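Work Package 3 (structural annotation) set out to generate three-dimensional models for the target panel prioritized at the project kickoff. During this period the team completed the workflow that converts sequence records into discrete structure tokens, so that structures can be stored uniformly alongside our sequence database. As a representative example, we reproduce one entry of 248 residues exactly as it appears in the project archive.
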Amino acid sequence: MVQPHKPKHDGKRMSVSCTIADLQNAKEATGFDAWLHLASIGHEIILDLPVKFHKQFNRLSESGKRLNAYVITKDSVQFSFEIDNGSKKEVKHLIGVDTGINALSSTSDGNQFGKDIKKFIDRSKRCIKGSKGKQRAIRALRQRIDEVAKETVQGTDLIVVEQLNNLNESSKLKGRLSGNMRSSIGSWNYAYWLMRLEQQAEGNRVSFRTVPSWNTSRRCPICNHVDGMNRRGEVSYLFVQVFKTQLK
């Protein structure tokens, strides 16, 4: 016979749904706006977490429907919203976006955004892991990534990015970055960048696509000849043409 025991959560994140969680108003409370009420099946364990609403929460509450799903971390409670942005724009202007260290976002029409991203990565790299300075540097880097994502999606109808998976010492970024920088702009930063770029595209009714990265910036879209001279600096302009031919 299996002896009953209380569950123990040792992870950094916990996802819960309406089956055990409910957001409740905090009446006559000071310092916070609501309780996240957690109760185990049978209500043997009950926990009320005080929640302070962020300005982003208030903005999303006005434009969307809050879902009864929550992600709880050591420092915060994350909410999910369902927002109807309408149909995507008709594709009249599309761009390819290449990620780099000299400019976080280099587009196929010749624009570059986030030319100062290396400064933010350098700052994060210099800080001691786990320190308050490191946390501030990461927040600053995230904010800058968010700003560049917002700038990138303006004035376009379709964004195409390369699929770069398993970023490590032997990845595509190895040729662009010095050894001590690779660990800073590796998989975590790149994944966060793509996530924010896609979210900005979704919020602005801009379509978002990915294409395989192998030789997309060096292959001629007409004859398929591969040559390093086809790539001009940071801008992978050819893979947009490849994507155009795939749409036809």
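The first strand starts at residue 13 and ends at 17.
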